[in-house]
Amino acid sequence: MSQTVQQIMAQCQALFEDLRFNTVKEWKAAAPGRKAIGYMPVYVPREIVHAAGMLPVGILGGGDQLEVIQGDAYYQSYICRIPRSTIELGLTGRLDCLDGMLFPSICDVIRNLSGMWQIMFKDKYVKYFDVPQNFEDGIGGEFYVHEMQLLREDLGKLAGKPVTDDALRASIAVYNENRRAIRELYAYRAAKPWQAPTSEVYLVLRAGMVLPPEAHTALVRDYIAITDAVERPKRDNARIALTGGFCEQPPLGLIKSIEMAGCYIVDDDFMLVLRWLLDEVPTQGDPLENLSKAFLHRSATTASKYELRKEEKGQFLMQSAKKAGAEGVIFAAPSFCDPALLERPMLQAVLARHKVPYTAFKYAENTGQMAPIREQAGTFADSIKLWSAE
Amino acid sequence: MSTPVQMMPPQPSKKPVAPVQKEDAMLLQKEMINRNYHDLAIAHDQGRKICATFVPGNLNELVMCFDFARSLPETNALQSGLRKKSGKFIMDAERDGHSEDVCTYVKTDLGMMLGGDIGPTGEPLPKPDLLLLSYTGCFTFMKWFELIRQKYGCEATMLHVPYQGDGRVSKNMRDYVVKQLKETVIPALERVSGVKFDIDRLREYMKESVKAEEDLVHVLQSAKHRPSPIDGYFGAVYYIGPIFTAFRGTPEATQFYGVLRGEIDERVREGKGPITPEGELTEEKYRLVVEGPPNWTSFRDFWKMFYDEGAVVVASTYAKVGGTYDLGFRHDPEHPLESLADYCLGCYTNLNFSQRIDMICKYIDEYQADGLLINSIKSCNSFSAGQLLILREVEKRTGKPAAFIESDLVDPRYFSAANIKNRLESYFQMIKAKRVAQSAPSATPMTTH
Fold it and tell me: Which of A14, A47, B184, B270 has its CA 20 to 30 A from that of B142?
């Protein structure tokens, strides 16, 4: 049975390493006229892309396997790495299979990248996708519904047919199911982290960036069932929540290093798009209104989202970590990531107030030296174990 | 983000230096800024509330309707930079857990708070009663006020200004901003101040704003003359100070811009160049457009690198961070809230890349500039991310040479005078060589006999 887990992992690993997006090309080639739309972190309503008959494709930079040559010529040394490797992907033709790109509101760098993309890839559909920072239905909600409507109309034109309400409702149902599966995966990992190490969970999540949601949902459920069937050894590891990696991704080696250092990662903020909306989105009624209400009132919290009240700062992380049974928090943020690094002291203050231990380091998607990270994570895990033994 | 304001006299040094020369309007501006710091220092004693807000998207006329004293944290940070205080503040903030990677305006502000909230002029800078988070073209603003809110515990209200991703302001965007003003921002201002909103009062302030805006544009566009009577970057930070901060909409601002306009018109009539700290620039050798904020910790050294070479900045994007008035925008007393929305939506860093490039190319053309210089600021991703593409595109479209230097707003560790001077000298040589090449007869004759 572990062989089967290995098979799933081999499939996910291949998807993860495929920087030419062959899966996307194959999906497009399977039927005439199919189109694919890329999107960057943190969140876009993929339901609209899906309802237009297109494949939403998550673009998370080039990782540690891509040599960035041209991309570096567009950025100063003090800008994070994800935009330069994304440009490298674009300039080397690796993203030619995408018919458009969505740049959500997350930070100034990604925002500016949208304008660069408009200039550099003039033949593609490019959209800066703004989301509201006002969470009243009649204010931010109204704005957001309009923005989604624009996206819907644009994609309808690109597809050659309008995106209907029924198609949207059907897509909402598809993504409800996907989010349900992801929640099951997170709950499973929190309950049995030794059965679902994050180095595996991460790859399963990453597969959701390129697979159609229906296929990804099936993959997630297969993984849970198959890994649960074969007992793995349970170690006396520290249970930690990892936070800060919501945009530029750490190398897979970094996740493995944290685990090898004696940590079970029981919660994280990777690929939040997969679970941004916290509950089922109603499949009856106005679909854009429903997506808007879900966004405004029941969505995840991260550094790119305004916290309306001071008292709420850090509560999402606290509750999420508590729900997963985390004993401590590791802040792992990309170098030069304004949102994560500006947010960090506020979250740390909240954790300190609640006596939750934490440690922090930075990475880049191509970080190669893991020894210091392993050492820091190991020390952190040991300290948690010592404290919890008191 | 970044901001303008008053330049300080030269820093004390061991050898005697000549007194700094300034226009009358510059001195007036300095008085205004210092007076505002004093007003802030005594505001609570006088029963006034304090509102802190940002320069881009500054809703000064609206805030005045509620009798608030106005504090602008970017201005406070840059003033600390000019007075050589920011280095310590930044290190204090870093020791307090703030990353070395993030905006130094934010860390200067937080460092100042750690040091007991003494403002740049040495007077206390009391804690604000309201943080008006006008989120225009800079993501860091949002985190900045969340950080201050956490530290001070004061109330915050958010005005989310959508980005012009498609290079235009849609009705939806405008309606969204107006609705927030009506239903979120104004009620918060009323609640904290205890003053009821009076839209006619807002209209009156806006009438004053328009006069100042007209005069400011006249002054900035005077740089189209040869020689330019102003420096549109180093000099412009004086000019934009009042209108970008606590004075837009006040009679003092109207008076300031009237005086300034008169002075500049006189310089035009007399065919004079700009005033620099060492006197009038008598020979204009290079005309530049600059993109990006200045460095504040070595402001005068930086400026000197230009005027020593006879280089004048005829237009800068930085002088538009608090409003793109030269593109035609004016506050409209007949439609006050819609006008505030348009103002916020139109600030320079809320423009998309094509708009920013168009603006720079237009400046190069209309101001007959020799080229573009980008001062890329480590702290400011809103400005800096993607500037190398701007450089390429502007070169491609105008055929004019462009150059790139790097520094920071208020972190003295990121100002390398020798490197910047070398680059500038090379750039000026490049411009000169290009002129020679253009004026010389074609190197390859069309026909030879």
Answer: A47
